[in-house]
Known about the structure:
Layout: E1 2-4, H1 6-12, H2 17-24, H3 28-35, H4 44-54, H5 58-61, E2 62-64
Amino acid sequence: xxxxxxxxxxxxxxxxxxxxxxxxxxxxxxxxxxxxxxxxxxxxxxxxxxxxxxxxxxxxxxxxxx
Length: 66
């Protein structure tokens, strides 16, 4: 199971979902779905943009658990 920790990174960076959507170029709906773990997939290009904006690694956002 992959757990999305986007909310944790947003809190660490003191960034709102609105600011992230504006800087990454995604819709509020898509970021909300991602933040709540309701997505089945994510494009590498989207993950790269998020990591660039949040200055983090993919492993800071995604966590694998059994």
